[in-house]
Design brief:
This protein is globular. Helix 6 runs parallel beside helix 8 and helix 12 runs parallel beside helix 13. It is of the alpha/beta class. The chain has 13 helices and nine strands. The chain has an eight-stranded parallel β-barrel, surrounded by five helices. Helix content is about 35%, strand content about 15%.
Length: about 400
């Protein structure tokens, strides 16, 4: 059951004249999340309307990515505290940054992040244990299969074990499927992990993570797996993992899209497909760029920008709001399966796609029309939304 959220009337209004008071009351009664636009101006949104994490708390967690709290301003930290109930470290827990050499670990930033989240009652989703990118060469150097397997196990056991009971879930294996279309196979990348250990590296990674923290929720995470041949390959991989007894609990669909292309129908079906395997689903790295390139390929977001100083037009902001609203309508439909929706970054200043305005807060930490559209997707749903 949905409820309208009304803002309390400020005490300041009690001293107004009757006519002005009536007008003020009428404004206060307006749904706080509705965008308001002046002719010819960019759409605006009430900055103190319903809070996104509170609106969705009975459905799924809503999160942001960032290596908090170091180098974040007080305003940015407050933005996280007020709007999100789960945080994903953007870079500081990836294999390269946290474990640059076999005998060297860098726990300072991850420790600070976990401590800050615990202090502020924010859950942590760990990212990421095994990946073909941002992984130091020492994992594979001069090592046979047994040596590389031991190194992987030691890495996972140390990292997951250190935060046992404080990190609720992990991306265990990240982006193992090749972009080359081949729906007849798992189509695994020819990564150093595959070359050293074979396809079994995925199963072993999940087993090692489960041994280190039996209560953690374990995910396979990838981009582009919601549609086409890559979705078919993901289903083959997941079925094999389940058949082999891997302790896998969920699938992460990254969700790097643009307003020019979002595969809504395929996404809807993909969530249902993963649920049919008994798996939870999370949208793990959500951003919707304006006009720019989409896709989760490493590094692409930095190379294709339409101008870091270009301001989005009112039409751009409306298209983005419509896209986010339609996406969240799909997530609401699958609320019994969707566990978490995390935005990849915090604001249009704190994003790997800076210059493409992909998130729901602008560079000044103000709510964009997309924020209001997401709130309205639940509080004021459109029974028959038109495609953006």
């Amino acid at each position: 059951m949905t409820r309208r959220h009304k803002r309390p009337m400020p005490l300041l209004l009690t001293g107004l004249g009757p006519a002005l008071l009536a007008a003020a009351c009428a404004l206060a009664a307006e749904p706080a999340s509705r965008p308001v636009s002046a002719p010819g101006a960019a759409p605006t949104v009430h900055q103190n309307g319903p809070n996104i994490k509170e609106v969705y708390k009975a459905h799924f967690l809503v999160g942001a990515a960032g290596d908090l709290p170091v180098s974040y301003s007080d305003a940015e930290r407050r933005l996280v505290e007020e709007n999100f109930n789960v945080v994903t470290p953007e870079n500081c827990m990836k294999p390269g940054p946290i474990h640059p050499r076999e005998d060297s670990w860098r726990f300072e930033r991850p420790d600070a992040l976990v401590a800050w989240c615990v202090d502020n009652h924010i859950a942590v989703h760990g990212h990421t244990l095994v990946w073909h990118a941002q992984t130091s060469d020492w994992f594979f150097r001069d090592g046979d299969r047994a040596t590389v397997t031991r190194r992987m196990k030691d890495h996972i056991r140390t990292l997951v074990g250190r935060y046992k009971g404080r990190i609720r879930s992990w991306d265990v294996v990240n982006e193992a499927i090749n972009d080359r279309p081949d729906p007849r196979t798992e189509n695994l990348r020819r990564s150093s992990w595959v070359q050293a250990m074979g396809p079994e590296f995925v199963t072993l990674a999940f087993r090692f993570a489960h041994e280190a923290d039996p209560d953690a929720v374990l995910y396979y995470n990838d981009y582009g797996i919601e549609a086409g041949p890559k979705h078919a390959s993901s289903m083959r991989l997941l079925k094999r993992l389940i058949r082999e007894g891997a302790p896998i609990h969920g699938v992460g669909i990254q969700g790097h899209w643009s307003t020019a292309h979002i595969p809504y129908e395929a996404l809807d079906k993909a969530i249902a497909d993963y649920a049919s395997l008994g798996l939870k689903v999370s949208i793990t790295e959500l951003d919707v760029t304006i006009r720019g390139a989409s896709g989760g390929q490493f590094g692409r977001g930095f190379s294709r920008r339409f101008g870091r100083d270009a301001s989005p037009s009112p039409e751009d902001l409306k298209a983005q709001a419509d896209a986010y609203g339609r996406l969240f309508a799909i997530f609401i439909k699958h609320k019994d399966v969707v566990e978490r929706v995390t935005f990849w970054g915090l604001s249009d200043r704190r994003t790997w796609r800076r210059g493409q305005h992909p998130l729901i807060f602008d560079a000044d930490n103000r709510r964009k029309p997309a924020y209001a559209a997401i709130v309205d997707a639940l509080l004021h749903p459109n029974p028959d939304p038109a495609p953006p």
